[in-house]
Description:
2 domains; 6 helices; five-stranded mixed β-barrel; CATH 2.40.50.140; globular; about 30% strand; single chain; CATH 2.40.50.90
Amino acid sequence: xxxxxxxxxxMLAAVPLNAFLEAQGxxxxxxxxxxxxxxxxxxxxxxxxxxRLVGIMAPKLSLGRDWLADQPLSHEARAALAALVEGRExxxxxxxxxxxxxxxxxxxxxxxxxxxxxxxMLEHGLARVYSFADNRGAVPAMLALEETARQDGLxxxxxxxxxxxxxxxxxxVPLDSFELVEGVVMDAAAVDRRIFxxxxxxxxxxxxxxxxPADRGSFRATTLDPLALEGKRVRIRGWTSWRNGPSIxxxxxxxxxxxx
Length: 260
């Protein structure tokens, strides 16, 4: 376990829940009982309301969707989450927006023994960090736990399907997919106030990360200056599309990890 992950685990064991929540930028919500589990990142409460475990993405089950096949370890992730929380009382905590467009509650879950459900899934290699601009609480802690599982090759990190993609190999970056892409930023430039992070010399085919003018503001309150990333090795996470090569739209700083 990496030092940051050890610190997180020690904090959960040593401090009251409200102190941990405050340190992670979370707000404590109500208690509820988990009646069922939909997949590796969605549960159903006794009230009938669904809770999406905000901040993580577990392997996806098709759940009747013809366009989506069960992803590797999706059944294992669901089974592990069910064994952890089904029938148990949990405390909800919020890190930003509290409902998604489907009406699901967006929350972190904590068991009475102090187990942080998102952290547990990440630590065991059963999910990846999946943050949003309007829901950024506890992301650094989750990234540390994800890193520990990746270094140890646990769960999804032993599966090629979830491998961190090499930005130097654009052809190896799947499109229309949530991916982690790693490489050296060859060029960082602002064009019409939009920032482009280019990972190669051929702008027409290489991997690019883009930050819109509207989203640049979220970086001003942090120490991360995207235009200072040139020459640095970074890991970008987000949904890929084709825009003169594989491209990821970055709308908040936690999508970028500086690796050196």
